[in-house]
Specification:
The chain is an alpha/beta fold and 232 residues long. It has a single domain, classed as LmbE-like (Rossmann fold). Helix content is 40%, strand content 14%.
């Protein structure tokens, strides 16, 4: 089945869904915060830790890392021009929703839509909200994936599931067929993001080696049938 997978930053899709991407070649991976900031000469603390001299260099080289990683997994990169929060250029939820709705309009109505649960980071939460809004405009089969690294914070995933339940979203772990020999390919793809691994430090990305998990969801509307069910 064709699929559109949404990634907040230039690494989140592979970190959270690398094995799934290997098992679903041809997936379009859309990174929301992949744009150059207005001030390309600025140097944030994170970019400095990654070894970059400027925001412009960071975005250019991180795109190349993403291209190389997705090539190993059979994914197709698609980069939106929004700047992430570290550059002080956070877009509105509405602007991101419009961009994702346009992408969904180009996909077949039965194309699977895969996006993050939205853990911890403000960019991740924004992307989740925009994806849900875009999905409501153009419903289709959908899955939520756990935001790698952040899901390892004790209690955070459980808290987020409770928040979503309170908001009327009921999540159930998706049943997916195991596919052999995907972990090795994912590990090689993760290593493509050398700048980010440098900043994370030793052991900082160990969560990417843990089993991936995705969730199907239902909208808990009294008297209504379930609104969505993920497939694999």
């Amino acid at each position: 089945m064709p699929a559109l997978l949404v990634s907040p930053h230039l690494d989140d899709a592979v970190f959270g869904c690398g094995e799934w991407l290997q098992a679903n070649p041809g997936t379009r991976v859309t990174t929301v915060f992949a744009g150059l900031p207005p001030d390309g000469g600025q140097r944030t603390d994170w970019d400095a830790r990654c070894g970059f001299e400027s925001a412009a260099q960071a975005v250019r080289e991180r795109r190349e890392e993403d291209r190389a990683a997705l090539a190993l997994l059979g994914g197709e990169p698609c980069w939106l021009e929004f700047g992430d929060s570290q550059y002080g250029a956070t877009p509105s939820v509405e602007a991101v929703t419009d961009a994702l709705s346009d992408l969904l309009a180009r996909q077949a109505p039965d194309a699977l839509f895969v996006f993050p649960i939205g853990l911890f980071h403000s960019d991740h939460r924004l992307v989740h909200e925009a994806c849900m809004a875009a999905w409501r405009r153009r419903p289709r089969p959908a899955l939520l994936y756990e935001d790698a690294l952040y899901r390892g914070i004790p209690g955070l995933l459980q808290q987020r599931l409770a928040e979503l339940l309170q908001a009327g979203l009921v999540l159930t772990p998706a049943k997916e067929r195991p596919v052999a020999d995907t972990a090795g390919a994912k590990a090689r793809a993760v290593r493509c993001y050398a700048s980010q691994l440098r900043a994370f430090g030793p052991g900082g990305h160990d969560d990417t080696a843990r089993p991936e998990r995705r969730w199907r969801f239902e909208i808990n509307t009294a008297g209504a049938a379930p609104a969505s069910e993920g497939t694999s």
